[in-house]
């Protein structure tokens, strides 16, 4: 039977990039770390690492085994957390990643409230515009907005939101927009991480679905909603942004909504989590808490 501690040492070596660094991180000697990895390779009958004087590299078998170890160790940690919860409430570590904008406005306040309910739970929040790999980066939950790419992750629908085209009063004074045709001819600010940021299906006031396409390439591009918002506020053009993000600027008159009688497609908000046989109670509890909080805030 495989020794879980030995698996954890192997993972630590891969993550640290050397036996010396792994030994330092684990508080053990280099000899102990090296011995355990050699024993693991002997038990498996395969080489997991290619050793050289300059660096370590995973073999093909080692790469596959490393990914399986991550899942197995996470399952073991989740099981221990649930056993402890039965006696002491939620505990352990909850790692969550979100986009910076939705994280700051919605998820971080929810995490603060959730932490008050579960003081034994340690929470780590990481904000990023890029989609993290939940398994290799050991995240429990990722909050994602918009359309989901095909993946092996589980997805729980939390909410949906409207997206609206907006521009500053200064821009509209120079380039009025009163029709879809004028909107298509506008100077657009586009999100670089969307596959088709300048093409959308729009519902007209007559309730007809039409394909809307911007005529020219985007004037400016950014990799976050915050960047697009800043461009729009400075009069750079039209941006299509979440209503919840632009609401303060609309109320203050710093941005104007365009073609309010037209509807761009609503976007969904999902909680993604690893597709393991045992879903940790801390994951289920937080997703349920966040869904209820979002519904109440609406």
CATH architecture of the largest domain: 3-Layer(aba) Sandwich
User: Helical content, roughly?
Assistant: 40-55%
Oligomer designation: single chain
Tally of strands: 14
For the termini, the CA-CA separation is: 52 Å
Total domain units: 3
Q: With helices defined by DSSP (H or I, 4 residues minimum), what is the helix count? A: 10
Task: Assign the structural class, choosing from mainly alpha, mainly beta, alpha/beta, alpha+beta, or little secondary structure.
Answer: alpha/beta
| Global outline | elongated
Give the rounded overall mean pLDDT.
89
Summarize the helix and strand pattern as letters.
HHHEEHEHEEEEHHEEEEHEHEEH
Largest sheet: 5 strands, mixed
Please provide a written account of the structure.
It is a single chain. This protein is of the alpha/beta class. It has 3 domains: 4-68, Orthogonal Bundle (Arc Repressor Mutant, subunit A), CATH 1.10.10; 89-159 and 268-297, Periplasmic binding protein-like II (D-Maltodextrin-Binding Protein, domain 2), CATH 3.40.190; 163-265, D-Maltodextrin-Binding Protein, domain 2 (3-Layer(aba) Sandwich), CATH 3.40.190. 44% of the residues lie in helices and 23% in strands. The protein has helices at 4-16, 19-26, 30-44, 60-88, 100-117, 169-174, 180-184, 225-233, 243-252, 281-297, and strands spanning 49-51, 56-58, 92-98, 121-127, 141-145, 154-161, 163-167, 188-191, 199-203, 209-213, 220-222, 238-242, 256-257, 267-273. The strands form 4 sheets. A 5-stranded mixed sheet has the order 4-3-5-14-6. It has a 5-stranded mixed sheet with strand order 11-8-12-7-13. A two-stranded antiparallel ribbon has the order 1-2. It is elongated and about 70 Å long.
